[in-house]
Amino acid sequence: MEPRVICVLLLVSTLALSSLAQGQLETCVVDPHKRTNCGSPGITPSQCKDKGCCFDNTVRGVPWCFFPVAVDNPPEGRARAALGGLKV
Fold first, then answer.
1. Of the candidates 45, 86, 88, which has an alpha carbon nearest to the alpha carbon of residue 65?
2. Is pLDDT above 90 for 11?
């Protein structure tokens, strides 16, 4: 690989790991009746994801495009898996 490509990959990896290390993980696993609407009726999955939101149209009568929820203290196993096996 070119040195420029390696530098970009290193920068992206560093930024991703720093945000994970701060405990700012989010999840789209939300009780359907506790979802907070993030889109308008008729929003497509790609439009929803472009807004940084979650899309799940499997439950009728609840928002399909909704905000993810923060995971402040993920279980150690999930945090380690998210960081590629590194100890946190």
1. 45
2. no
What number is the average pLDDT over the span 48-65?
Answer: 96
- Which residue's entry shows tokens 């380690």? 80
| Three-state secondary structure call for residue 87 | coil
- For the chain, the structural domain boundaries read 3-70
User: Looking at residue 25, what is its pLDDT?
Assistant: 87
- From CA 25, how far away is CA 17, in angstroms rounded? 11
Is the pTM of the predicted complex or chain greater than 0.90?
A: no
CATH class of the domain at 3-70: few secondary structures
CA angle 38, 19, 71 (to 5 degrees): 55
| CA–CA gap between residue 82 and residue 77 (Å, rounded) | 9
